[in-house]
Specification:
Blueprint (H helix, E strand, L loop, with lengths): L2 H34 L5 E3 L18 E2 L10 E7 L1 E3 L4 E3 L2 E8 L8 E9 L12 E9 L6 E5 L17 E8 L6 E9 L8
Antiparallel strand pairs: 1-3, 2-11, 3-10, 4-5, 6-9, 6-11, 7-8, 7-10
């Protein structure tokens, strides 16, 4: 084979190798981002903007209520699935608290939150909106607090599941506040991890 005729083949081999590398590295980044922030729904009925800041783990970015709500709530956040896949079965997670943090320059407003168990339906098979089940209702009426930890002890005890989405829910937090100044920086779940078993 002449060297001149081998150049196009070498070019395509290098091009394909580089393309595969880019595809692999971008896929890895997207998978790690998905693990941190699964593509759940966020809805802000006040259309104030910046609702995604509540889940970005950055206390300097905030959501500030500017408009008036158009539903019975200001916003909701779909936070996390109640189970995770361990390679064989869906294992239940144990969430202990919901943490709500004020904006850096203010205190928490008075608010009400509902913790909902949102049906984790298979959207490829069912063309409908998921049903919600109220699990916890919490009213915050304190003054001069920067953070509150809402206990989730009243959540049901989830069981191991083998067939998704049976018995698997999306933990969803729904918020409403009529305070004159409403600003939050973070909303996050605290999960109790299993202790490593001693040998």
């Amino acid at each position: 084979m002449k060297f001149v005729s081998a150049i196009p083949i070498l070019f395509w081999i290098v091009l394909l190798s580089f393309g595969n590398y880019l595809l692999f590295s971008n896929t890895e980044k997207k998978i790690s981002h998905y693990n941190e922030n699964p593509p759940f729904r966020l809805e802000d009925t006040t259309r104030s903007g910046g609702i995604h800041h509540l889940l970005d783990k950055n206390p300097t970015t905030v959501w500030k209520k500017i408009g008036q709500r158009t539903e019975e709530f200001d916003f909701f956040l779909e936070l996390h699935l109640t189970h995770y896949w361990d390679g064989e079965i869906y294992q239940p997670r144990l969430f202990t608290d919901l943490v709500v943090e004020a904006c850096p320059d203010s205190y928490l407003p008075k608010f009400q939150t509902k913790i909902l168990l949102r049906e984790s339906i298979n959207v490829d098979k069912e063309l409908r909106m998921p049903k919600d089940k109220l699990a916890i209702e919490f009213n915050f009426n304190e003054n001069f607090k920067k953070q509150v930890m809402i206990p989730l002890t009243n959540l049901p005890k989830f069981k191991k599941e083998s067939n998704y989405p049976n018995g698997i829910f999306i933990l969803t937090a729904e918020f409403i506040s009529d305070s004159p100044y409403v600003c939050f920086s973070e909303v996050k779940l605290v999960e109790k991890k299993d202790e490593p078993k001693s040998k």
